Amino acid sequence: MFGQKKARPSPENPHQGSPQDLARDHQRVHPLHSIKTRLVLAFVSLTFLSSVVIGGSVALRVISQTRNDYQEMVEQQLGITNQALNNYINNISYNTEMMASLPLVRQADTRITSYVDKTGPGGSIPMLPLEGDPYQADLYRIFETFVTAHPAVFTASLGVEEHGGFVQYPARNRGDGYDARTRSWYRQAAANRREVSFSNAYTTSTGELVIFVVRAVHDQNDHFVGVLSIDIDLRDLSDMVSNIRIGQSGYVAITDREGNILAHPHRPELAGEHISRLEIPRFADFGSIDEEPFSASLEEGSNYWIRVRASDNRQFPVQFVVFIEEAEFYITANAIVRRIILISTLFLLAAFGIAYFISSRVLARNILQATRAMGELAQGDADLTRGLAIESRDEIGLLAREFNLFLGKLRNLVADVRTAVDETERIESTMGSSTEETSSAIEEISATMTNISRQIQEMDNQVDQSASSMKLINTNLQNMDERITDQAAMVEQSTAAITQMIASLGNVAQITQTKLKSTENLAQQTEIGRASIEETASIFQSVVVHIGSIQEMAETINNISSQTNLLSMNAAIEAAHAGEAGRGFSVVAEEIRKLAESSAESSTRISKLIQEITGAVQRTSETVSNTTTVLDAISQDARDTVNAFSEINHSISELNTGGRQVLEASEEINEITIQIREGSREISQGAEQSLAVAARVQTISTEVTGGVAEVKIGTDEIVLAIQEIVELSKKLSEVIGKVKEGFGQFHI
Question: Where does the Methyl-accepting transducer domain lie (predicted)?
Fold first, then answer.
């Protein structure tokens, strides 16, 4: 079915050519692009990177270890230097203490010459210690012996507290009015009389860097008598630091607390100058520098590792400044790096040879064999039955086996494609007739859809009219339902009012019954009260009668008391006539007179009380009479009230009966209203359901209309698609011809 044709280069693919051309292209691989070259470069690069990493790590480790070793060396040297400085200061302090404790020095007094009140030509007074008092001469000779025995001592002097006297070796002229007590060294010792004191370093007029050491002097009785002062040359410090070596280039300088240089082994001319003269920025604020090391460049341009550390001497505190050239840290590391570079070069050469041998003898041979086999396969006439005959167990052999499997799958694929092309050609031949039949059927469907759309439009119009009528019915039903609801509400309000009225009538009836009973009780109590008051009135009348009898008795008592009083007066007269014999009778007569007077007074009070009681009884009698009249009126009113309450109770009973009848009628009206409202609601619900059905029908009609329109659009699209299918069928026929021509080249 497929013809055998030679493959020709395509103008669209300039890279397509004959198998011989492709084989020659494979044989012309650039040397830099070959696997052998890449393998050698990879192996050499890996060896080089490993050497660089190892060398860098070793160099950094050596540099770090060198720094640590130098720091330990610095600590050791600073410890030695600090101990030497302490010995130096302790020696000076000991000599000063010894001189201050000499008996001759402790005898200082006015025998030493004073210049306080002296003047000299030109303001200078010569000092002549040997021409004065023998004590002063002996003291001067002791100072001479001490200074001569200690080359670092410039001068030794003594100031006297008593009169400001002063003696010094070697002798030097003093200024007019010189008073040792006003000098700073004297005041320093006087302020600290029990210890040796050191001053800050200063430069003399002759250029020497010195310090003065002072000690207060006390006599045998421990009285303060003066101050001993010794000036010390600091050149011994320079000699001390000159002998210190840290590594090959490291050295130590000494400064005071303010940063003034006391000793510098390489720059002795800077003694007395501030350390900022070294032009290191951090030394400008020397007091704030801590003990952490830092790097800086000196005047000669070399970078130095610098560390500042304070001494532990309290009497003469100084600072040690260590300088080590940083290049010294890298000497050992540089030597090791050079050795590593040499060894790495040898390793690179060896790696290059090994990689070249492996790539040439092992890998390249199998690759060339596979390349030749593929070239032979490409030079044939698309024969898929041939494969690669490589049996090695490495990746090249695996590649050959996988390629052979690929050829087998490709053969199966070519066979399947040939079968599919034959089937496609058969389908394409039958597609033309089916397309014409489908086109006519689609035209009939389009006409039918147009007719359905017109009928659905008429149905929509009728549904709209029905929906309008149902809406009007529903509106009227809603209005009627609202009126029925209002009527039901009014009936319910009337029923509630009647129920409340009946309840109120019941309450009034109960109250009337209660008040009726209370009024009847009031009438009975009124009658009882009237009887009680009448009885009280009769009792008061009997009391009035008895009071009259008492009044008569009181008058009788009053008459008796008058007669008794008269008899007592007569008895008293007779007793007076009798003299001593009638004295006893006179006493009896006096007592009788008093009794008569007392009886008369009691009778008078009784009469008065009886009159008051009589008036009160008369007023009470009048009140009782008035009360009786009032009770008669109250009794009559109570009887009238009882009759009125009886009539009210009868009327309320009749109203209660009528209210119950009205309530029963209202309940019947309410039930009828509820039935009417329920019927109205059922009619309204039916109307709403009919309206919903009409709306649903209208919606369905709209959806059907839209569906018909979409079907019509779909039929139009189907017509266009069928036309495209016809065109594609023609193109498919052409493609099938080309595929048959192309796959006809393969041999399977």
Answer: 462-684
Element (H, E) at 683: helix 583-743
Q: Does the residue 48 lie in any domain? A: no
- At residue 27, the 3 state secondary structure works out as helix
Between the alpha carbon of residue 349 and those of residues 192, 358, 372, 436, 642, the distances in Å are 79, 14, 32, 82, 149
pLDDT score of 598 more than 70: yes
Q: Which residues of 704-743 are buried (b: 16+ CB within 10 A; e: fewer)?
A: bbeebeebbebbeebeeebeebeeeeeebeeebeebbeeb
Residues 308 and 425 placed together within one structural domain of the fold: no
pTM above 0.85, yes or no: no
Instruction: Single out the residue in 305, 330, 355 at which a domain terminates.
Output: 330
Strands 124-125 and 174-175: antiparallel
Which residues does 218 contact at the CB level (< 8 Å), separation at least 6?
A: 106, 193, 224, 225
**Res 171 pLDDT > 80:** yes
Q: What is the CATH number of the domain that holds 225?
A: 3.30.450.20
Contact 212, 154 (CB under 8 A): no
> For 143-159, how does the pLDDT look when each residue is reduced to its tens digit (9 = 90+)?
999 999 998 898 999 99
Closest alpha carbon to 196 in 87, 94, 317: 94
Residue position matching structure tokens 């303010």:
258
Q: Is residue 94 part of a domain?
A: no
- pLDDT tens per residue across span 296-332: 888 777 888 898 988 888 888 899 999 988 887 777 7
Strand pairing class (153-160; 166-169): antiparallel
Range of the domain at 732: 403-742
Tally of structural domains, the chain: 2
> Residue 450: enclosing H or E segment and its boundaries?
helix 395-578
The three-point CA angle 403-407-410 to 5° equals: 135
Angle at Cα 731 formed by Cα 725 and Cα 734, nearest 5°? Answer: 145
Any domain includes 16: no
